[in-house]
């Protein structure tokens, strides 16, 4: 399936804004992304296995916080990351 990557993480994907990944759950999808683009998962998920505070994952345009949510190849997955600072 295709995954939309925010511009702040595109350094990991060689500038690609949409990349392919596979997985039966959001967590598996993020693991596959990390295999293809090492280091990207750490920017999305904490050491405790939860989404980082400024990261949002949308599946079919619905906000998803449960990384164990089942997904299928036809789902649309979008990762957004807010920027913070002053």
Overview of this protein structure:
This protein is of the alpha+beta class. It has one domain: Beta-grasp domain (Ubiquitin-like (UB roll), Roll), CATH 3.10.20.30. The protein is built from two helices and five strands. It has helices spanning 26-36, 40-44, and strands spanning 2-4, 18-20, 55-59, 62-64, 77-81. Strands 2-1-5-3-4 form a five-stranded mixed β-sheet, with no helix packed on it. The radius of gyration is 12 Å and the shape is globular. The N and C termini lie far apart (36 Å). 20% of the residues are buried.
Descriptive key words:
86 residues; alpha+beta; Ubiquitin-like (UB roll); five-stranded mixed β-sheet; 5 strands; globular
Radius of gyration: 12 Å
Query: Can you tell me the CATH superfamily?
Result: Beta-grasp domain
Number of helices: 2
CATH T-level fold name: Ubiquitin-like (UB roll)
Low-pLDDT runs of 5+ residues are: none
Distance between the termini: 36 Å
Shape: globular
Order of helices and strands: EEHHEEE
Number of DSSP-assigned strands = 5
**What class do helices, strands and sheet pairing give?**
alpha+beta
Strand portion:
15-25%
Provide the spatial order of strands within the biggest beta sheet. Answer: 2-1-5-3-4
Sheet with most strands: 5 strands, mixed
